[in-house]
Amino acid sequence: MAYTAVMSVLKTLDELQFPCDFQNFQYPGSEIRTLQNNLTFLQKFLKRNPPGIEDLDVRIRETMYEAEDVLDSNLSNFMLNSGSSGWAENNYIPNFSQGLDAVNEKVESIAKTAKERSPHVDPPLLLMPPVPVVSRRNLIVGREKDLKYLKDRLKAASAKLQTVPIFGDRGIGKTHLVQTVYDDPDIVWMYKKRAWVKVSQDHSKKETLVGLLRSLKQIGSGKGQEMTEDELAKRLSRVLRQGSYLIVLDDVCNPEVWDSLKDLFPDGSYSRVILITRRKEVAESANNGGGVKEIQPLDGEEPWSLLQSEVFRYDPCPEDLETTAKRVAENCKGLPLAIVAIGGVLKKAGPKDWEIAASSLTDCADCDDLIDAVMSLSYKSLPQYAKACLLYMGIFPNNYDIRLSKLFKLWIAEGFVDKNEQFNSPEKMAEGCLLLLVERFIVVVTERNPVGKIKTCRVDGVYFEFFKKKANEEKFFHVITDYTDSFPDETWTYERFSIRENIQFADRDKLKLKNRVPTVRSLLFEGAQEQNPLWVHLDFKLLKVLDALKVRFYGFPDEILKLVHLRYLALTYPGEIPEEICRLWNLRFLIILRHRNSKTSEAVSRLPLEIWNLSELRHLQLMGRDLSDPSTSSPRLENLVTLLDVSTHSCTPEILQRLPNLKKLGVRIESPALDVAEDLSFLSHLTMLASLESFKCVVMHPDFASQGASLNPNLSFPATITEISLSGCGLSWDNMKAIATLPKLESLKLRWYAFHGTEWKQEGDGKVFPSLRFLLLEDLNIQLWKASSGHFPWLTNLVIRHCYRLREIPAVFGNIPALKKIELVDCNAFALESAQKIKMDRQSRGYIRVDFHSSRDDHQ
Q: Which 3-state string (H, E, C) describes 587-655?
């Protein structure tokens, strides 16, 4: 990735202009200015995305890696041989020019070549393409008969399990067709339980079981691995026997997979399994009498109609483009995915771009060649920064649901995204990049939070292998899937490593890379949690990203304290953090968790005072630890936007006033004091956080017996807050007044004794909870709930769990036009009856879905 590599070196040069306490030196000015000028030109040159520069792209990328090695090595040598007060006291005189002359010479040569080509470069294919306004509904153009077939199969009465096998070529639109039926309101109403799971090529029955139970919301994200395959199967069977169910098994690759899974699905009225595959023999192996369905390519005028709707929407195709555009449609061989993908590329494109697209698709021999050609065009037309972000997603396994909260941090730490004239923060640029990839149908959204924001995603399976191959060609990263004590010899030029089977680096000699080892920039341990003590050798002095949450450290690894270039550090470690960690001046993300079985000490564990000097910090997650009290001269952490898992000791006015741009705060109270009200007094300080958007407070071990009455602290939130989650706080319902009037609050989660008291009487004139869309009540002792018309005007989802005493849901909820779903889990019959009455009363004005579940059914 030449563009990304240039950006990374420029970022390093920018950082050298602003020395911190541990970086009091100057690089030779003339060499640096020459390098910056040439790199700035190459950045603009590459941003144009010019075609036909593959040879130059490789030269730029390799030279940038060399430049970064020189700059980082010089800086690392300086910092590791100097004291915090400067190198002179140790008589260490750094040679900052070492290696720069050779790098400058190569960059000069490349810049000269680029300048010679630049005047002759044709306009690129959609240099910075707009995010296409498309709908996945377009993928079902011409599929009306197929849709009717599927719906009829699902609606037909049957006392036994019916399979619905579907097969067709890659990119034919099988998955999107089934998704349309799966989300159809009639089908949703008919099937009490629905689950969708992507079956990987290296099929694991246990992984499929875990995926099904997660889709059914029977186990949480990241859970299930501790259960045996037999336990998972029994649990799935209990859930499916409760009533009608619809299961989708997507991308099944061979008959043996169905043979291993078919016994999991019990007979029952309206029980269906849709099996999606590319192979006819797999579909036929799953047929139990209803027949199989082949999805055919679009024909006639359908491809042209679909392409027109994607590119021109309601406008006619310009006359000068029509002939070429029809060639593009014809060359897509009736594959909806190819048509929609190429349509996204060609929005607002000129005649030359259309001609390039038509020619690129002309010689495709089969569907696989066509899809690869379309993906190549789609990839080339992406903005340069988006290419790196996309390839990086291949570090995660195929069909793996990637959490955006982690993905965005890694993108930022790697330097792929940053703020610019279009985006005012790296996080906003990351979000814009993801939305572009989603709208291009390259990335699939797999989970959204209660208010509709994307929570997890993955690369579409059709695209995954293509981008994995592309990443390998560019030596972008290497995945280690076998247990080993060294890097494979052929990977010495790679900078990023994803380690699926936890690797054990015993010592430098076993690494087998000798002097090449320091070029490693990123290590991500993505394997299962290591259950035994594991020693990991970390002598990679240029490392920028270290994600080692899956590795158990029982002593703090001293090597980490020498990794002065680290931007992202994630560890699982129970002990004290050494003060030398504050020498890691470039840290953006610091995540230090405890082992699950670690006991939290009642004594407050603080980070060193010097942590306030780490001005680049954006994210701090410190389970069982706190920020230290600042001194009067401690600077503010202007860039810190997230602070998680800290106690109330990190929420004093002295600390909060030094976090002016904090957007997300998570407080975890392990052992509350006898005076619980004093522990919660920090809630009155939150208005100091003028940018706060998300707040979570969890009291882990509240003392219900001694507390007795509910608490009534001075609760106050800034008007910017959009999400609040409380658990174990024991607040009085009177405190709800401070929450109900928040103008931007969209999500409110009240769990396990968050509020204490049998009656919630919501008062207030006009609209109360004016923006709330999601409300969760869980494990509360509430009995009576009163609300008035005008309260909760935009509520769409109401979830009530384990509120055994609640007698009824206020009838006025039937007057909320936006309300779409009421979910009750382990509630009494009176509450369920009130929900059903709300549903019946609203029938003439709009549909409300009511789901009820009892955990007792899981054990039958």
A: CCEEEEECCCCCCCCCCCCECCHHHHHCCCCCEEEECCCECCCCCCCCCCCCCCCEEEEECHHHCCHHH
